[in-house]
Amino acid sequence: MRSFSAKNIIITGGEPTIVPHIEYLLEQFKQAGYFLAIETNGLKSVPPQIDYIATSPKRLYSHKYGKQCIAFANEVRIVVDENILPFCELIEQKFRLNITIFPLVK
């Protein structure tokens, strides 16, 4: 990793918060001076080494979301389908977020 000029690492998945021993890897990166970001579904809390949290909550798991990761996210990305508006409203109410929905232009 040190041979690369990048100083930012984005941990993504599958779901990176369920990877065994990920905190050890993150600690090695953190000690080497990297800025660490994670992309997660927001169901589990993120390791303390993470500097930036991007969540992508899934409508399928909407009943499972508490105040874990989403409340502390720096960025929330929601995958859009025809039934997404009620889910966005739920997330907005549950976490008191301001959500702006932009249509995808084809």
TrEMBL record:
Q: What is the lineage of its organism?
A: Bacteria, Pseudomonadati, Pseudomonadota, Gammaproteobacteria, Pasteurellales
| Gene Ontology MF terms in the entry | 4 iron, 4 sulfur cluster binding
Which residue stretches, if any, does this entry annotate as coiled coil?
Answer: none
| Keyword annotations of the record | 4Fe-4S, Iron, Iron-sulfur, Metal-binding
InterPro entries, from UniProt? Aldolase_TIM (IPR013785), rSAM_sf (IPR058240)
Name of the protein in its database record:
7-cyano-7-deazaguanine synthase
Q: Which domain of life is it from?
A: Bacteria
Source organism of this protein record: Rodentibacter pneumotropicus
